[in-house]
Write a structure and sequence with these properties.
single chain, alpha/beta, 7-stranded parallel β-sheet, binds uridine-diphosphate-N-acetylglucosamine, binds uridine-5'-diphosphate
Length: 383
């Protein structure tokens, strides 16, 4: 019998982390031929994940340029994918989440009349400029997709509100939990000496990341200044900040946080050390999407450096608090979590609203069901 040709397309670090276990699952499933195409919208940060999960792409568009605009990315992905899709002729294309690679990968497949499966579908903040451009990328990808893999019931409900056919939505859990469970180990030892020397028992270690486009400029300056002030007032705090490779972010971080004792500006970490660093942290300060899903699973409080979130589940569960980007508010909330043990205790309960480690299996089964390779509909993910 002819195999179902499934092409996975991704290009940035978070997509790679969340698609890697799915590509492995596709490779190990009978009746499926798995093809991997990376756009390399990110280069080094993507390659780190490909190496960790031992993935060898069949196609690599290698598009990254320093200082690339959204249009630069989109034009290159659209043109590059045209040739790849014409040559490989997949039966279905899988894209993930909300990046430029996601939306334009789906658009390129639509132009070739190839059905699209959207992994991590149905997340919505309700504001098309926050996160920007991700919220619009999600909505556009929803319209281009034929099959929707929604991590949670809330994501499913968002798609139903947009009149998506319920028979084409599968609630699967988020594949990030599949990835996380593969790499976090209690007795983990880092390669990076700075990370091994930190006293995680006696210091309050805050792990921070910050990269969102809507935070570029003044909001990011506010964030970094708030972190500097907090650190100067609290001797028992250490801050570890693996800085995103965007040169503008690196320059600002270096200017404001570069010479403060106890603030460690380090290179982006491989996923395995980063996930284990999250596991050793006191709490997390971030504007990242993926980290809002990982930290609750590890029982770590998260303060989110954004005005709204498309991931309300962990806010409801009490492990995530949305701070916004005003300097004084950030200082007040960070100090509250550092000093109020009761508040800290309430936020550090391990909850797992995003997945149970079986999302990839459900997605592959849903694909096989949709394309009539099997008769049984997969069980849905419930908390
Ligand atoms: C992109 C996604 C964003 C996602 C983020 C994850 C879009 C529009 N944005 O944002 O949704 O949350 O990835 O990190 O799709 N760079 C390197 N090496 C790398 C990666 C980046 O040098 O491995 C530098 C380059 O100068 C590049 C810049 O960072 O031009 C920005 O990368 P880009 O993909 O355009 O935007 P991100 O902010 O990373
Ligand atoms: N991450 C990583 N190394 C780092 C920082 C983050 O591996 O130095 C991982 C993190 O665990 C999460 C993902 O990268 O799985 C989040 O990526 P990012 O914050 O770049 O993007 P977003 O999730 O905001 O789209």
């Amino acid at each position: 019998m002819k195999k179902l040709k499934v092409m996975s397309i991704f290009g940035t670090r978070p997509e790679a982390i969340k698609m890697a276990p799915l590509v492995k699952e596709l490779e190990n499933t009978e009746g499926i031929e798995s093809i991997l195409c990376v756009t390399a919208q990110h280069r080094e940060m993507l390659d780190m994940v490909l190496n960790l999960f031992e993935l060898a792409p069949d196609y690599d568009l290698d598009i990254m340029e320093h200082g690339q605009s959204i249009s630069d990315i989109n034009v290159k992905v659209l043109k590059g994918m045209e040739g790849v899709l014409k040559e490989a002729k997949p039966d279905v294309v899988l894209v993930h989440g909300d990046t430029s690679t996601t939306f334009v990968g789906a658009l390129a497949a639509f132009y070739q009349k190839i059905p699209v499966g959207h992994v991590e579908a149905g997340l919505r903040s309700g504001n098309i400029y926050s996160p920007y451009p991700e919220e619009m990328n999600r909505k556009l990808t929803t319209n281009l997709a034929e099959i929707h893999f929604a991590p949670t019931k809330g994501n499913y409900d968002n798609l139903i509100k947009e009149n998506i056919d319920s028979g084409k939505i599968f609630i699967t859990g988020n594949t990030v939990i599949d990835a996380l469970l593969q790499v976090v180990k209690e007795e983990y030892v880092f390669d990076n000496p700075i990370l091994n020397e930190i006293d995680y028992e006696n210091k309050k270690v805050i792990v921070m990341t910050c990269h969102r486009r809507e935070n570029w400029g003044e909001p990011m300056e506010n964030i970094f200044k708030a972190v500097a002030e907090v650190k100067e007032k609290h001797d028992d705090v250490e801050i570890v900040f693996p800085v995103h490779m965007n040169p503008n972010i690196r320059k600002l971080a270096q200017n404001i946080l570069g010479n403060i004792e106890g603030v460690h500006l380090i290179e982006p970490l491989d996923y395995e050390p980063f996930a284990n660093l999250l596991n050793k942290a006191y709490f997390i300060l971030t504007d990242s999407g993926g980290i809002q899903e990982e930290a609750p699973a590890l029982g770590k409080p998260i303060l989110v450096l954004r005005d709204e979130t498309e991931r309300p589940e962990a806010v409801k569960a009490g492990t995530v608090k949305i701070l916004g980007v005003e300097k004084d508010v950030i200082i007040k909330e960070v100090e509250e979590l550092l000093t109020n043990h009761k508040a800290y205790g309430k936020m550090s309960n391990a909850v797992n609203p995003y997945g149970d480690g079986k999302a990839c299996k459900r997605i592959v089964d849903a694909l096989r069901y949709h394309f009539k390779l099997i008769d049984k509909k997969p069980e849905i993910f419930t908390i």
